[in-house]
Fold this sequence. Notes:
heterodimer, A: alpha/beta, D-Maltodextrin-Binding Protein, domain 2, ten-stranded mixed sheet, B: about 290 residues, mainly alpha
Amino acid sequence: xxxxxxxxxxxxxxxxxxxxxxxxxxxxxxxxxxxxxxxxxxxxxxxxxxxxxxxxxxxxxxxxxxxxxxxxxxxxxxxxxxxxxxxxxxxxxxxxxxxxxxxxxxxxxxxxxxxxxxxxxxxxxxxxxxxxxxxxxxxxxxxxxxxxxxxxxxxxxxxxxxxxxxxxxxxxxxxxxxxxxxxxxxxxxxxxxxxxxxxxxxxxxxxxxxxxxxxxxxxxxxxxxxxxxxxxxxxxxxxxxxxxxxxxxxxxxxxxxxxxxxxxxxxxxxxxxxxxxx
Amino acid sequence: xxxxxxxxxxxxxxxxxxxxxxxxxxxxxxxxxxxxxxxxxxxxxxxxxxxxxxxxxxxxxxxxxxxxxxxxxxxxxxxxxxxxxxxxxxxxxxxxxxxxxxxxxxxxxxxxxxxxxxxxxxxxxxxxxxxxxxxxxxxxxxxxxxxxxxxxxxxxxxxxxxxxxxxxxxxxxxxxxxxxxxxxxxxxxxxxxxxxxxxxxxxxxxxxxxxxxxxxxxxxxxxxxxxxxxxxxxxxxxxxxxxxxxxxxxxxxxxxxxxxxxxxxxxxxxxxxxxxxxxxxxxxxxxxxxxxxx
Lengths: 278, 294
């Protein structure tokens, strides 16, 4: 008799499990933590100008920092910035060291499984190469079997290697990679097209060009902890991004930080435009 | 008039066995401090020489000149010193402190009369003495939590503090060997003499053996401090904010001109030399002063 009751109880508890899980799914731990301590900790880049970099006083500034400030102001809490690297940003978020990550991260499928990526994406960039004009590269196929410099942690290193058979030499810093390009250790430097564009327009790379068509146009995403993705924090960040697109905040910031205006932001603004406005 | 001793300054005049005169020699110097202290003080200037030669070596492409590069470096000097090099010093001081205390305990454990204590101490010492520092750093930085809760109070552990723990492990193991070696270097006759005067083992250790060891341990101890300080840039690989990490970020903020590489890294090199060189000289001085006289 007791056995039967026990078995029944066990069966019932298994049957209840999914319901309990659903109820527990939104504990909103991170959101509540941020609100109760009155401080939002955001992981940003400190080595990716102009999205996140240091000024000479050591403060982190940049476009993504302005976005983070806007989030903190909207929530009515203080902002604390933590400098993250491509290699540790998702881990910091998983550990709870940071509450929110806005760190030039490309929106990839494998990354969505680890952190709570919420749309709409706030930026996009493609992959291109900078190479000496003298080489006259015309297609990505020209890279096959040749040494190409890159930055550690960039997802497209692997793609360029697999798709076009280039031999990637990855550096920790961009300065080192560019020096290697000048020293002719590699025939090209593979990086974000927007960043290469601003380098070329600086007038110090007159012998170089961006000869190929940008590939893998990849949206960038901010992320909340995975558990918060479909809860208050995730929904809130979706709303923030939607608003930034709609009222042109992102386009303004882009201008403020001297980034070449992208078609993506213009398109998004048009797409989300209020049909009753004007 | 040169003294000519058969068998030493001139060929032997006899094939009979001769007892050669004993020539005392300074004990061999093989360690880092000796190497570093071997430089003359003006070596610091020589280290800055690549800085001076750099403009001629680099392809002077574009309009970003070496003057601009130095101007840029100058702007960043206060930040690099205050938030960068200061942390290298703090990390090295705390790692040394923790490593020394733990190392002394472990070293004494290695000469314990209790077999199990001796074995465990020996094992820990060998384990950390023979592991790559970077691997230990990786393990500590990734395995330790970033905050701990003690009685409901959340205590944050910053990255540099984890780096302190990671670097103190190999230091601990090496100090342990220094302590063990120093104690073993005291002639056993002293133990026997003390025992015959009815000192207990603890008394012998604290009152007779260790005071003699102390001065012998200072030179190798300082030697390890210099090595540790020079190893702190390893933390940059893990994103701990110290001078190399911040130099990279500073170069990024200045648009990654390749011309910046040599000035920035030479600056860090110069700082480490200025800090470690006096320590190396001091070590050599103490070593000479406390050298075992035969």
